[in-house]
User: What shape does this take?
Amino acid sequence: MKVTVIYYDNNSLELHHKFLTVQCKSNGRVIIPEDYKIGKSIIAVCEGEVDVLNKVGDRILPVSVCA
Assistant: This one.
């Protein structure tokens, strides 16, 4: 099954997303590989390939630009 995983990398506050092909359990829940979860806080798993148009913080300038 194709899914889009929306997550935070544990080293930054930037919201990321990635397309994955994963297996499903008999109850319909997706199985995200343990090694993929390392270093991430997963916020949502969406069915299919989702085009994220806007994310929280997209319009915030980096500190280096403001200084």
